[in-house]
Amino acid sequence: MSTSFSPIPKPPIDKFEVTPNLNYDTDLDGFDWQTIMDELDWLPGGGLNKAHEAIDRHALNPETANKLAMIWEGKNGEREDYTFADMKEQSDKFANVLKSLGIELGDRVFIFMERVPELYFAFFGILKAGAVAGPLFSAFGPDPVKDRMEDAGAKILVTQPDLRRKVTEIIPHLPELQHIIVVNKDNRDPEPLDAQDLSYEVEMAKASAEFQITNTSQNDYSIMHYTSGTTGKPKGAIHRHHAVIQQYSTGKWALDFHPDDLYWCTADPGWVTGTSYGMIAPWTNGVTQLIYEGGFRASYWYELIQKYKVTVWYTAPTAIRMLMKAGDELPKKYDFSSLRFAASVGEPLNPEAVVWGKDVLGHVFHDNWWQTETGAILCANYASSEIRPGSMGRPIPGVELAILDEDFKPVGPGQDGNLAVRPGWPSMFQHYWQKTDMYNSRFKRGWYITGDTANVDKDGYFWFVGRADDVINTAGHLVGPFEVESALIEHEAVAEAGVIGKPDPIAMELVKAFVSLKEGFEPSEKLRRDIMRFVRSKMAAAVAPREIEFIDSLPKTRSGKIMRRLLKARELGLPEGDTSTLEDD
Ligand code: PRX
C-alpha cells in the first residue's frame, strides 16, 4: 500500500533531484499510523519481527533479493558486499546457532563488537530467534560491560578476540552468562580461543541456512540499550518489535529515504542511533547502506562520500564541528555531487554548522531530535520544509510534543520548560529493565518527561535549551555522572568525587571530575594522570574524565549528596544559588 502523501514542489533552501517523501505542511490531515502499519509485511498470523521487515521481506522478493543491502569497508580498506539475500542467509544461520544453544523467546544476547558485517548478521539472527539484542559500544572497558550484562542477565555474549580479552576479568561475575561466541574475522587474531568459548566461524559452518523466524508478537521485546541518568547506574531501555513502525516511517520522513539511495550513518550500533538508523530504518526501507568500520578522519570521511556516492548522510554535531575545524580548503578537493540530504542528531547543532553544510557540502544539515527512550526520531527538520538553523524542527507526524512548566502543565510559545511527549508513539520504550519505579517516574500528568528543556516558537518549531538533569552530553554520548564517580572512588587515593559537564566548543561538553583525596595522598600531576588512566581502563576513553581537579572537600547537601550544580556554577563562574542546604564546614 502506498502512502497518501502528495508530491510537492522543490523546497526553497536546498536542492533535490527527487521529490521529498513528505510535505509536512500539506500532507498531515487525517494522519493515521494504520497507513504505515499496512505498508509493512507482518508475519503470517499477524506477528511482527524487525528482522523480517528489515531483511527477509526484501530477500524473499525476487525484485530486491539481489539488491545490495550492505557495502562494508573495513578499517584496513577491505571491502565486502552483501545483498539482502546474503543478509538473510547469514542471519538465518546465526539464529540457528542461537537455537542450538538453547536461546528462547525473550532471552538477552549481547553484542560487543567493532562494526564488522558479523555484528549485523548476529543482530538480526538474535531478533529472528526471538531473543533481545543488547549491543554494547566496542570502546567500553570492562566495568560498563559488566554493569550492563549483569543487570540484563545476558545469556550469550558475541564478541571478538581482543574485546574478549578486555573483559576476561568480569566473566566470573556474570552467573547467567552461558556462552561466549567469538568472531575471528578473516583470522585477524592469531591467538587461540579460550577453551570455554565457541568459535563463530565453526558454529556458522555447522548451521543450516534456513530458519523459520520466531513468531514474535508486536509487543515482544527486541532491543535494549543502556542509557545514563543522573542517579544510579545506566538503565536498560527496552523496545518491542512494534517500534519498527516508527523507525520505518521516520526513515522515509526525516531522512527522506528513496529506493536508490546510498546511505551512510556514522553512529556505532552500541548506541541507539546505530541500531534504529544504522540498521532498522534504512533496511526496512530497502536502502543500500555503507558501513565503515574505521573511526573519524576528516579527509577520509569526505573521500567515503565521494567514493561510494553517498546520497543520504546521517551524522552528529561533534563530527560536523570537527570537519569544520579541519578547514574549508579540504572539502574543496572532493566531489559531493551525489549527496542529496544531510541530517544530524545527538546534540544541539549550532546554526553556523547548519549553514556551513550548505556552503561547503552544498546541503544544510537537517537537525533532528530523539532519545534512546523514544526509539525513533520524534522531531525533525524535513526535506520539504524551511529549515530554521538552530531548531530541532517540528514533531513527526502522529507525535504530540509539548513544553511543560514545573507542574507539568503546557506553556505557550517562547517559554522554556520541560520537553514532553504524549505517550503512545509506536517506538516508545516499554520499560527500564527491572526498574519499574524509575520507568514510572518518567511519566507525569499524562506526559513522558524527556529530561530536556526546550521551547517552541509560534510556528511549532522546537528549540533545545539544555538538560534538566546532571547528565553530561560529550560528543553525543550521554554520561551519567554517578557512573564516573563510582569508577573514580575505586581508585585507592580517591576519597570523594563529583563529576560535571564542562562546556567545550567541539564536543559540547567534556567530563570534568572534582576529586578529594584520602589521608596520606597528596595532589600531584603524576597522581592526576594515574587516576585518569585508571578510569579510562575501566570505562572508555570517550566517557572518562578529560579533566581532574583536586579539591579539599566536595560541597554536599545535609543528607550527604554531592552538589554537582554548585561545582558546575563554580566552574563557570556563575552565581552559586541557594546554598542553604549545604553541609556546615
Ligand atoms: O539531550 C538530548 C540530546 O541527546 C539526548 C538523547 O541521547 P541518547 O538517549 O543517547 O540518544 C541519542 C540519539 C538520539 C536528548 O535527550 N539530543 C539528541 N538530539 C538532540 C539533542 N540535543 C539537542 N539537539 C538535538 N537534535
Secondary structure: elements and pairs:
Layout: H1 33-39, H2 50-59, E1 68-73, E2 79-83, H3 84-100, E3 108-112, H4 117-128, E4 132-136, H5 142-152, E5 156-159, H6 161-166, E6 179-182, E7 198-199, H7 200-206, E8 221-227, E9 235-240, H8 244-253, E10 262-265, H9 272-284, E11 288-292, H10 298-308, E12 312-315, H11 317-325, E13 341-344, H12 351-361, E14 365-369, E15 379-380, E16 394-395, E17 401-404, E18 417-421, E19 431-432, H13 436-440, E20 443-444, E21 447-456, E22 462-467, E23 472-474, E24 477-479, H14 481-488, E25 494-504, E26 508-517, H15 525-538, E27 547-550, H16 564-572
Parallel strand pairs: 1-11, 3-4, 3-5, 5-6, 6-7, 10-11, 10-12, 12-13, 13-14, 26-27
Antiparallel strand pairs: 1-2, 8-9, 9-19, 14-15, 15-16, 17-18, 18-21, 20-21, 21-22, 23-24, 25-26
Helix pairs in contact: 2-3, 2-4, 2-9, 3-4, 8-9
Bound molecules: adenosine-5'-monophosphate-propyl ester.
Residues 227, 271-273, 345-348, 367-372, 392, 450-452, 464, 467, 473, 478 line the site of adenosine-5'-monophosphate-propyl ester (PRX).
